[in-house]
Each structure stands twice: as structure tokens, then as C-alpha cells.
Sulfate transporter 3.3 family protein (Populus alba), 1304 residues
Amino acid sequence: MEPNASNSVQPDHFLEITPMEVHKVVPPPHRSTIQKLKSRLKETFFPDDPLRQFKGQPLGKKWILAAQYFFPILQWGPNYSFNLFKSDIVSGLTIASLAIPQGISYAKLASLPPIVGLYSSFVPPLVYAVLGSSRDLAVGPVSIASLILGSMLKQEVSPTNDPLLFLQLAFSSTFFAGLFQASLGFLRLGFIIDFLSKATLIGFMAGAAIIVSLQQLKSLLGITHFTKQMELVPVLSSVFHNTKEWSWQTVLMGFCFLVFLLLARHVSMKKPKLFWVSAGAPLASVILSTILVFAFKAQRHGISVIGKLQEGLNPPSWNMLHFHGSYLGLVVKTGLVTGIISLTEGIAVGRTFAALKNYQVDGNKEMMAIGLMNVIGSSTSCYVTTGAFSRSAVNHNAGAKTAVSNIIMSVTVMVTLLFLMPLFQYTPNVVLGAIIVTAVIGLIDIPAACQIWKIDKFDFVVMLCAFFGVIFVSVQDGLAIAVGISIFKILLQVTRPKTLVLGNIPGTDIFRNLHHYKEAMRIPGFLILSIEAPINFANTTYLKERILRWIDEYETEEDTKRQSSIHFLILDLSAVSSIDTSGVSLLKDLKKALENTGAELVLVNPVGEVLEKLQRADDVRDVMSPDALYLTVGEAVAALSSTVKGRSSSHV
Amino acid sequence: MEPNASNSVQPDHFLEITPMEVHKVVPPPHRSTIQKLKSRLKETFFPDDPLRQFKGQPLGKKWILAAQYFFPILQWGPNYSFNLFKSDIVSGLTIASLAIPQGISYAKLASLPPIVGLYSSFVPPLVYAVLGSSRDLAVGPVSIASLILGSMLKQEVSPTNDPLLFLQLAFSSTFFAGLFQASLGFLRLGFIIDFLSKATLIGFMAGAAIIVSLQQLKSLLGITHFTKQMELVPVLSSVFHNTKEWSWQTVLMGFCFLVFLLLARHVSMKKPKLFWVSAGAPLASVILSTILVFAFKAQRHGISVIGKLQEGLNPPSWNMLHFHGSYLGLVVKTGLVTGIISLTEGIAVGRTFAALKNYQVDGNKEMMAIGLMNVIGSSTSCYVTTGAFSRSAVNHNAGAKTAVSNIIMSVTVMVTLLFLMPLFQYTPNVVLGAIIVTAVIGLIDIPAACQIWKIDKFDFVVMLCAFFGVIFVSVQDGLAIAVGISIFKILLQVTRPKTLVLGNIPGTDIFRNLHHYKEAMRIPGFLILSIEAPINFANTTYLKERILRWIDEYETEEDTKRQSSIHFLILDLSAVSSIDTSGVSLLKDLKKALENTGAELVLVNPVGEVLEKLQRADDVRDVMSPDALYLTVGEAVAALSSTVKGRSSSHV
């Protein structure tokens, strides 16, 4: 826009195209404080309105709905058919073939006896089948929670010197993890897991996958004296200081099975129809390797094997739980961390597959189901379990229709526990290592990392912090650092809200950011700002400084060009979703500061809550004049520009 | 609005009144990542653009400006005139008459030797006069910082058993307080003090005033065996368990002087012109009471007096600072808490009077000035000082024009230190107690508390938490609780952003909240939502659930009335000031979920940053179709309503 001889052309021009009546800003319909509190609490804790279906139902129906709400099995059970069963039995057997070797491997990852992994694949799936609302979740031990459980407990108790105490602490941690998960769900505080952002999780998972894989070097290389630490540096130094312990038979066997498993995984990833290749490969490897060891008596040639396993179902373990004593703090902390990590995985998996099949999963209810499953598990010799991503994917691909596939898996594990345990006596540890490595490699999601880099550099930094924190510091600290940075970013965003300078798009009454839409034009005498965030104590000081700087910049820029100073500061409050007492003071201060320079403060479109609070201020006129309140920026400019014209000409 | 026979009437009607061309949403002008990072950092750390004045100046001028920036005395010094000096000398002497008794009293409040209070009123004001940019701030010890310093140090070291160590720790804490304050300013992290909201401060101040007053019961009642605790309950029980120690002479004297001081305060509050009444009253009380004690030998009748004070200026104390040893943690913590509290008071006072006289105070620069003042103070036998609210108000009322009034005060204190110290030997402690009570009573701001109750109930709760926390738990814990709750509220706001359902105001192309503006009407086939916050990892889950519920509610409500389902979900993103990778996924998921039901996602007015991030998504079409992007809701509805009409009639 060129400077004009007469500076009043533009408002005139603007007026021509918008011959408008002015709409009044009215306060929202009155609601009492109690009503407001009620609706606020509802939005905060019941955003999904779980009681919606109960409305207007007769009492009997309400009871049935309530029972179905707490036990989803009552919802789908009655309609269960033979066709569904056919699908479920295939998928159940498929995940069982995966669950048995993984259960044994993950228990070893947590430094627990291998059989605990099988116990944990028997009871929890049954509980989940009754309480859970996801149809695809395959329940059992998972790699990351196993890793964290083991590494946190190992800091204070040695699993080799005091295996019984270690086991007791593991069950106690599981109890507290379950209690914590169920409470989160019951108290509707599920949003706490949202603070683990996707970027954090991707970095964390990749780091954990590397830590887990490094731990497998012990069994893959056949090392007997291995460090007890988890981080990259001590593990690698331990590996290369013990090269004499490497056993070529173990390395060869490990390498062959690793290649076989990775190939199987590759095939299934290329052709999802061939999901059974990767699903069956671990069990096939276990069987094949066991036969090999048995045939060649390989355990005498330096290949370590699992050894004798106890037969029989889960023994009760509620008498092993520690509710007091010196380890209570450790157990509660471990329960908290493993609980939140496994909950995050379980909920994310449930939501992913629910979205694929277009049904709803109630996050808070799922938390209660998973929590209860762990509480029951902790008293039946199970450690922390959740919905595992890889097994759930196999379950989904194998055509699972309902939670019955979990029951099938559980029954298969039961049969194994009762009759097949002697078969595992000669299973070499190296194959278990290869199975774990293959499973966790899928957690390193490089395309997602690239995508994050492309979209948001800050998220990428958070991801790197989680990744390097896990690798070089420790699993739980890496996670804490990443969460801390994410929350700091949110607070920084709140402290430094955006203010946009709006200009008019010629020929319309649309006002948009001057620095974005080049065709948008300033209107002389007006400074139009849009505040893009709630105004609260944390940002009033900034906003005041920033707005005063906008005024200052406007005056120095404009004065030289057009000899016009600000007559009106229009604040578009459409995006200010709430305000507190500091915010009200800010507007008061701004109004006073403007009056000193002879300008006027005009507010546009405050939302209901903001308008109410402004009107409740001690002296409303200190904050806003009733005639300086408009519904749209366009109407404000149209109504006020005649005044500007008057003032400008009197200046000349 | 009544149900219509034909559901296409409204879009038609809407089209009639807005014969519009459609404006394109364009990406903002290109800027590189470095440029963006630069401007983001500038907005975050330099919102007030302190280097603005340097732009386009010759080098010599730049040097002068820089010197003036760091030493504001160079700015106003050259223009200093005799007229200004006349004003400053009056105000300087006035605040000196207040500073001397208050200095002695506050040092006793901090359990330090009374003379340290005078030392602290000599050096720091001189430093501030050179470095500070406020013209009204009267610098010296303040009640709350003194209270906190004393109470935190007393937890580990007894001031009576080991007075030298206690003094060393006080100076060391002052050093760390100053270091912390200066670093906050230097690193431009001044916004950290913004997290102490006005509501928190009002509650905290009132609580601290009560705690301070309770402590004065010791000297006001003449009790010799007083509790060392600070909280309400132990202090009151200590007072009433020692009724035998009450001395009627002390009580009588205390009562008389308290009434006198409160009356003087009342007079000055009613008539600000008589500011000198309350300003002079403390010194008058000290002189009068000293004469009384001296004349009647009252110290022999149970009235305790200050006793002999050392003469002479501040001795150096840099050799008394503790930088290691077992008390380092205590000293750093005490420094942090007193530093942030005294900084908050100093900055708030500076800003208040700057706003009254319409000049600017640079918060970060002030922090450096106050910090440096405390660092220098800690090596010249001073404890934590800042700009005191009550004394600054007197300074302002007495007509202070520049920081020279601080110099005058300092010189007066110097004369006192050199020559007048013997006069204080017979000053009774009870008068000092009365002076403190009178000073802190002004910190209880009941009208402000009422105002907060009226405007924002949540802020009121925060205020109460701070108040009761300070009274019943401890000064620092009360503060921590209130800050924690304030931050939790912000996080909750971020986690649960508002979504508004918009409707058209008939006869216009304005769209406003349906639940606020009763005349606003839904447009059949459209669900128009406005998201009122940045979209990030902490709220995507909630937003998804909430939006899906809006859709669900729309369909159940509308279906019965008008047999129309949603054809378009319009998301007004004007208020979404930023988005992260989770937010991009949310839009992707929403688009997919809508496509399953045959509806389409339309985005309106994404701001520059958001638009860029959406376009950088892997496959843009997954997130938004280029033809489903509009500049205003009105244009989107106008352009799309013909489609709805077509679809609806084909449904029939």
C-alpha cells in the first residue's frame, strides 16, 4: 500500500464495502457457580461421558448396562458364535506359540526365573478377557517393563545372591503397579499418561531396545562374567574385556537363529498375509535348537541351557508381598515406573487397534482392567503384564475377533505348564537372546523419527533427549528428562503466548495476520492485536511488555510514513479461552496506559467466561467501556473509523 | 429455530446474504529454520527488545548507550538539577527516619544482631542508586525476606548458641540470593518470578504478616522463654503457657506505642498528604521510648532494651562466606527462597511506581541490579535487601524524583552508624515489636482478597492455600503448595482445552458459540467446532474423545429432529497458535474416522506455523485436502453448502 495524501481514505473505503449493523456482545446465559463447577469437573474428568448410555433407561436395564460396563464380556459374550470362535482359536494358538518363548525370555530379561514368564502368560490373559474392552490386545509380559523392573530392583538386591527376596520384591512391585494403574482409572486421572508424548515414547523405546539388545550380548556371546549395569558404556566395556569368554559354538548358533528370526520378521513385514511366518518362527527356533542341543549334547560344549523347570500351575504368592519393611520405598517406586510405562503401552496398543477396526476403547476403564489384572497377577506368581504391541499385531493379523483368543492362549500356556515343561530343559539361552533381540528391534522406529524431524524440530530434540538419556544415563532418568523437557515446553508456550497483528484483507471484512497474509493492510489509527492464548498470571507481564512494544513500533514506523498515531487498540479476544485475576488487572493497566497517550482500548468477542469475569471486576469501566466492546473486528473498525477520521483531520 | 420441512433452506438462506468470492489460505512467507529459531528465541528471552534503541546508531553513540544501559545513573545523572535535589533530600531524610528503626527491627526478626540491619541500609542503597532503573524504590531489609532467612537458618543452627556461625550463614545465603537474582536477570529468565501469581502473593503476604506479628508477641508481652517455632499453634501455646512471664510494664508500653503507630498509619492512609505522620512515627516512638526508659531506669523494671551497639561502618565480610562444608546445601536453599521472594517484591514495587509515573522498568536489568547489590552486600556485612513496598510508597509520596533519595538515606544511616549508635542503648525491644507489627499489618490486603473471590474462585482457593499453608505448615512450604497448585491449574487448562460449537448469527456471516449466543443457529449437515488452545501431546487424546462426542451428540440430537447427519466437520483453527507431531496425528486420525462415516474434515484459518507443519506431514492429503481449507468459516459454509444440499436430496 502506498502512503496516501489523505490518511482517511482507508477507513472510508472500508466503510463502503461493509454497510453493517453492529451486533451486541451479550453475556452468556446465567449459570450458578455450582452448575459451572459441575460442568467444568465433567469436562475435566468425564470428557467421554461414559454414563451417556444410561440416560433415560429403566432401572433394570441400567443394572444390566452397569454390569456390562464393568464386565465387557457380558456385552459380547451372549452374541458369541461358532464363526467367531473359529477365528479366535487360530489367533489364540498363534499368539500362544509366540507367548511361550517370549514369556520365558522376558522373565530372564527381568532377572526372574523363566517359569514366572509362563505363569504371567496364564492368569492375566484370563482376567483381561473378562474385564478388558479391547478385542485385539494380546496380554502378557513385555520387554520394556521387564527391563525396567529388573534394572530398578537390581540396584538394591542381587537376583543371584538372594533370589527369593528378589522374587518377592518383583511381585510386590507388580502389586503396586496394578494398584496405581487401577487408581488412575478409577480416579479418572488417565490423562497423566498423555504427558508421555509420542516423541518421548519413540526416543525412549528406541533407547530401551538398544539397552535390551546389549543385555542379550551375554547369552548371544556365551559370556559368563557380565556386568550388572545396563548402560551402553559399561556393557560394551564388559563385552570387550571378556573376549576370552566368548564361545564360538554359542556365537555360531546365536548368529544362525538371529538371521533366521530376522528373515522371518522381514517376510511378514513385506507380506502381512504371511504373519504366521514371524509368529511361528520363535517357537520353531526353540524346538529346533532344543533338538539340536539334545542330539549333540551341546550343553557339554559351552552352550548354556535353561535347565530343569518346575511343572504345575501358578502357586499362590500373596504371602510373598511386602507391604512394609526397608524395601517398601523401592517397591513402590518400581511399581510406579513400570506401572505407568506398561499402562502407556497397553492403552496405546488398545487405541491403535480400536481405531483400525472402528470401535471405542474407554481409556479409564482399560486402566482399571489392566490394574486389576496386575493386582490379581501379583498374588498368583505373575509379574507386570500389559497388552504387548508385537503380539497384539500378530493377534490382529491372525484374525482375532474377541478376547476369547486370550483365553485360548491362556489354555495353551496352561497345558504347557502342566505337561510340557521338561521339554524346555535343553533349550539354549542363546536362542532366547535371539528372540528378544528380534522382538525389540521393531521398537526402533526410524521413519517415525524422520517424520518428527520434518514436522517439529523441538519434538525431535525431546526424542533425542529420551534416547540418549536412556542409553547413557539410565532407563528411568532418560524418561524423566524427556517428560521434564516436554512439560517445560508447554509452560514456556503458556508464558510466551503469541500476539498477532491483524490487517484487513482488502474488499472484505476479514482480518488476518499482517505478517502472514501480505495483502492484508493496516488501517491507519488502529492497532489490531489478536491474543492467542488464555491470559493468566504466568503471561500477563510478558503480554503487557509485548503489547506496549507493538504500540511503540507502530508509532515509530507509522509516524514517519503517515503521520498517524494510534487512536484505538483493538484486542481480539476470540482465542482467549480463559482469564484470571492477573489477566483482568492486565486489561486495567493497558487501558490506563493507553489513556495516557490519548488512545482507547477496544475489546472484541470475549468468550463467555472471560466476559463474565471482566464484568465482575470491581469497577467495570476500569477494564472496558461498554461502548468499546464489539462482536467482530470488522464491526469495531467500521463503527470507530469515523472517530479516527474526525481526530485525524483535527490534527491537520 | 423450528424444524423445517426441507432441510436445505438454511444453507440457501445463508448463501443469499453472502455472495462471496472465496479467499485462499496461503502459506506464510518462507523463513529458514535458523530465522525461525532466532525470532522464537527473541520472543522468548527478549520480548521487550532491549537493544531496540541501539539500532542504526553510530558506534560511539552505541558505547554511550551501552554504558547508560548498565549504569542508569549515567542516563539521568548529567541532567540532574538543584530542583530535583531539593525533592530528593526531603524524601531521602523521610525514608531514613523510617529505615533506621525498621532496619534494627527487621534484623532482630531475622535473629541477627540489630546493627546488621543498619549496615544493610547503608551499602545496598548506594549500589542500587548506580545500577537501578527505578526512581522510587527505597532499598533496604524487608520483613518477609528477613522472616524467611531467619526461620530457614534456625532449623539447623541456633542464633543464640552459635551466633557467629549463624551470621556467616546469613551472609552466605545473601551471596547466593544475589547470585541467583543476577543470573535470572542475565539469563533473561525473569519470567520465573511470574509463576508467583498475584493471588498466591496476597495469600502468602497475609500469612507471613500474621506469622511475623505472632513472633512480636515475645517482645510485646516481655516473654523471655519463647518457642523457636514459627507456626500459629506452637506460638500461641507458648504464649499462653508462659502467662507468668508477661510483664505488665512491657505490655502497657507496647500497647501505647502500638496504638500511636496504628493511629499515625491511619491518618496517613486517609490523607496521603500527611504521609510524614506515619513516616516519622517510628523514629518518634524510638526516641520517645528511649528517653522514657532512660529517665525511669525502666530497664530495671522488666523492660528489655537493645543494649550496647558497636560504632563504625560496615566491616568487610567476604572472609565469612561459606562456599563448602556441611551447610552449603542449607545456604543455597535459603538463598534461593529468600532471593526469589525478595526479587518478587522488588520487581513488583518497581513496576507499580513506574506505571504510576509512566516510565519503563526493565525487569531483567532490575534483577541484575538487585542481585549485584546483594552480592556486594554479602561481602560488606549486609543481609538480603530489596525494594521495600512500604518505604517506597513513603518515598514516592515524599516526592522522590531519582535514586538520589536512596543516597541521602544511605548518608543519614552512615552518620547514625558513625556517631549516634550509643543513643540506641536504651531503646526498648517492645517498641521495635510495635514498629514491625504496624509495618506488616499493611501486607494483609482484604479488599484485594474480596476482589479475587468475586472474579475467580479458583484463584481464591490458591490464595487460601498459600495463606493457611504459611500459617499452619511453614513459610516456604505454604509458598511451594500455592505455586504447585497454580502450575497444576495451567497444566490442567492445557490438557483440557475448550472446544466451542459455532453457529451462524442469522443475517451475517459471523459464527459464534451456540451456547453463548442464543440467536446463533446450527447449519444442517455442518458441525462447526473452534478449538481454543494449542494442540499438543498433552491434549490430543482429550480433543479426539471430545470431538467424537460432539459428533455423536450432534447425530443423536439432530437425527430425530431433522433427519440430517454430518456431512462436514469444520474445525476453526484460528485460536490454535501451535501444533506438534501428536497434533498432526490427531488431525490425521480425525480425518480417517470421519471418512468412515462418510463425512469430510474441513480446516479453517490455520495460523502460519500450524499450516507449515501440516504441509510438512508425510502425506499432506492424509491430514487435509487442499480443497478443504478455507480462510473463514463463512466462506467454507458458503462454498460447501451446495454439496450438502445435493447429498441431502439424494438421501430423500
